[in-house]
Design brief:
single chain, mainly alpha, 3-stranded parallel beta sheet, 5 strands, binds tryptophanyl-5'AMP
Length: 335
Amino acid sequence: MGLPRVLSGVQPTGALHLGNWLGAIRNWVELQSSHDTFVCVVDLHAITVPHDPKQLAHDTLSTAALYVACGMDPEHCSIFVQSQVKAHSELCWLLNCVTPLNWLERMIQFKEKAVKQGDNVSVGLLDYPVLMAADILLYDADLVPVGEDQKQHLELARDIAQQRINANFGSKEEPVLKVPKPLILKEGARVMSLNDGRSKMSKSDPNEGSRITLLDPPELITKKIKRAKTDPQIGLEFGNPDRPEAENLLSIYSILSKQSRDVVAAECAEMGWGTFKPLLAETTVAALEPIQSRYAELMGDQAELKRILNQGRERAEVVAEATLKRVRDALGFLA
Ligand code: TYM
């Protein structure tokens, strides 16, 4: 038996933010030494909403560089670009043909994004979770580390594998696909907007002040935190449902300063926002500094970055092709 397998990915749509790092990538870094870890830049997902073709290749490379800068070690994990492993598109088609339409229509993210797109909403946006299921199922992933917002998509991937493929085309003794489990950590799974502690930090929020990206320079981080929404109360606390901003900013501080919530709660119990905000800004700048300098080095040597992605693609193709063959055989295609 090999190591348990991990698969995850982030879309290359603009700079990654604190939510992507704390909710997802940080967990991949922890898992890579004890798991056979595959992480991809999901560029096919990035075109499910209107995109700029002049930016896509750059953003794909930049996202891969951020994976490495955040601590993904290409010698311990496989980093690749989704669209470069053709099996993702093919398995997506096979899964499309067994997935009921109404399973997709009830996806919360589709409903939220579709409202924003109006009449322009693409079939791809509806199909997004099936492609995501293909990403995961191709690698026989045991664990999928993601933020809280992806829980429903993970459930869908499990249902497709179990109810639509294994139940109809496999047997109990020989399931066609492995049924994956989500890994959603308690802390950092839902980093909230700086402008509103009740809505998620998101790449698609038109207000850039709502998020801190991993590439924001120190002055910008300080400015965004200074402007972040707060409340009039002195003394900061976790767990008060009427103070979502306090919960969010203290949680970010706790993770970035590597101190437990109890220690942070005690440290900040008497503090006002005017004292806390500079502390949070300083902590955030310090936490991002090593990521930003490693990122700059990597982007300065794109040949090396492409070598890393090629190596990842080769490893990914071996696993993905084997799974795709299993599914093709189970569905009865001519060999
Ligand atoms: P994306 O690019 O929207 O998000 C990437 C990861 O970041 C997490 N995340 C957050 N976590 C905490 N707080 C937030 N505010 C926050 N915002 C985003 C997401 O949960 C995610 O883990 N559909 C996926 C991409 C994908 C994928 C996959 C993931 C495609 N195929 C296969 C895992 C396995 C997504 O949301 O991307």
